[in-house]
Design brief:
Elements lengths: L1 H7 L7 E5 L6 H10 L4 H9 L22 E5 L4 H13 L4 H10 L3 H14 L6 H14 L6 H8 L37 H8 L13 E5 L2 E5 L2 H12 L4
Helix pairs in contact: 2-3, 3-4, 6-7, 6-9, 7-9
Protein name: 4-amino-4-deoxychorismate lyase
Keywords: Cell membrane, Cell wall biogenesis/degradation, Lyase, Membrane, Transmembrane, Transmembrane helix
GO molecular function: lyase activity
Length: 246
Amino acid sequence: ALLLARALTGGERPLTVTLTFPEGERAVDYAKRLSQAGLDGDGFLRIVQEPGALRPPYVEGTTLEGYLFPATYTFDLLVTAEEVVRAFLRRFEAELTPPVRRLLEERGLSVHAWVTLASIVQVEAGSQKEMPYIAGVFLNRLERGMPLQADPTVAYALGKRLPELSRKAGDFAHDSPYNTYRYAGLPPGPIGNPGREALLAVLNPVRTDPKGRPYLYFFHAKGELFLNTSFEAHLEDLRLHRYSSP
């Protein structure tokens, strides 16, 4: 079929499609985008979920989730699912520069831990400037053996979107290694595909307040990020800003 299509276009370059894949989305979202453009989204998702020989050595999880670098890509309309996956992986590898590898080594982070944490930061942050602070909170919690308690990991475990999460429905008690309320440490792998800002925030976090005390808590209220170094202060801020009447 490929030869035939090329013959029909007179051997000239077949038509192309240019697609933008947003940061923080999941492989299933990218597959949908590919399918809508007439490409093999289902085949793409199958390879992402079972990459086999395509899996790079630094991917410790079973899937390629997290390593599909969000960017704008131009694909030939005859592109195969495997070629699409390879394009995403090549683009991710372009981020693994020697300075980045050095920083990972200095920070004692594997590529897999780096991407996994960045994927959570990507979804938790309301803006780029919040990312280093949120990364700092999570790194401090990891160091102390405190659970991350990140809502997006629960949403990923359930295949839900963040706004769909429900305490009443028992979502936060769901038993999954991705549920960072139930299990300390990082989840088994990324929960989405982080962009460059989130990846860099994990390498250059803001971990302490001006007095040098480690940030351990954060929440959003009224479009603002509130950071705290103690649980008491965190509860007080929650009472003042999130639970007070407007």
